Amino acid sequence: MLDIDFVRAQFPAFSEASLQGQAFFENAGGSYACRQVIDRLDRFYRQRKVQPYAPYKASRLGGEEMDEARSRLSALLGVDPDELSFGPSTTQNTFVLAQAFRKFMAPGEAIIVTNQDHEANTGPWRRLADEGIEIREWQIDPETGHLNPEDLESLLDEKVRLVCFPHCSNVVGEINPVVEITALAHAAGAFVCVDGVSYAPHGFADIGEMGPDIYLFSSYKTYGPHQGIMVIRRALAQALPGQGHYFNNDVLYKKFTPAGPDHAQVAACAGMVDYIEALADHHGVSPGAVHDLMRAHEEKLLQPLLDALSARNSVRVLGPDRAAGRAPTVAVHCTRPGEAVAADLAAHGIMAGGGDFYAVRALQAQGIDPAHGVLRLSFTHYTTEDEISRLINALDHVL
To answer: What UniProt keywords apply to this chain's record, in alphabetical order (predicted)?
Structure first.
C-alpha cells in the first residue's frame, strides 16, 4: 500500500502554514510541486541561469541538467530521448503539431477528433478544415460521456491520416482504452495523437508499450514546472515537416520547438523522475510499478466520493460511477452554477473549481450549459482518506 505520510513529506505545500486546514481538490488544474522539482529549479536559477551548452562550467552543467531531464523522463515513458520535446504548454505543442500536419496532409484527407476532449486537443485540428482537411467527429454517448471504439470503426477509412482522442477526459474522467483504439487506427493506416494531460497525474504511461504516435501531457499537472511535454515517435517525427529553425530539422527534439523552452523548467523536470524513483525505493518496487501504487490508492479514495454523490438526486455525476476505470476527476452538474458551489466549498476549507474547464463541447454534448458549468472535484495520490471525508461532509453542507 502507498505510504501516504512518506508521499506527503515530498511536497512542501503540505507543510506550508498558509495552506494548513485546506484540502486541495483542483488537482486537474495543476498539482502541487514535489520538493525534488523545487530543489532543482532553485539550484538552476541560483547556479546555472546562463545560456546552456557553452564550454564554461555553469553553462555546461546547465545543459547537462536539461539533457538529464529528457533522458530520464523518456526512459520512464518507454521512448527514446530524442522522441521527447519540451514546449511552453500542451496547447502550444498541439498548435505546432497541427501546423506540421497542415503541410503534411493533402486536401480531402481526414482527421478524426472527439467531442470528449479539452479544447487543446480538438480546436487546432478542427481549424485545419479551413485548409481543405476533412474533420470527422467521434461523438460521445450523451448520457454517459463514453467514447465507444465501435463508433470509431465506422469513421475510419483510407482517407483518415490522424485520430486524436484523450487518454481520459478532464470532465468525464473515464480512462479510454488507448491500446485498443491505437490498434484500430493503425490497422486503418492512420496515426494516433493522445492527449494524456488528464491521465498523467495519476501515473506515467508506458507510451512505448501502448503504441500511439503522439502523446502529450503537462508537467505542471505531474508535480513539476509549467511545461508541455510532447512525445512524437521517430517514424512520424521524421516524416513531418519541421516547425523550428531549418538547421534543426535533423534533431527530432528541436524539430517541433519554434522557440526555445524555459531552460530552468526543462532541467527541473528531472525532479519528477527523482520523485517517482524515491517512491519506488521507499516501497521496494520498480519505478514502473509506482503507477499501480498511485492508482490503487486513488481508487480506494474515489469510490466513497462517487457513492456519496450518486446517492443525491439533486446532482449528476459525469462519467462512470465506479472508481475502477476512471480517474479521480469528478465533474458534478448541480442545480446552481459550478463556480458558486466551489465558492461555498472554499468556506469549508475545500479548494475546488467550477466552470467549463475548456471542455465546452463535452459539456454541450451531455446537455449541460457551459455557462452554468460543473463543479469539479479532482485529486491525486497525495490526497488522504481524511480529506475525502472532509470533502463529503462539506458537500453535505453546500448541496
So the answer is: Aminotransferase, Pyridoxal phosphate, Transferase
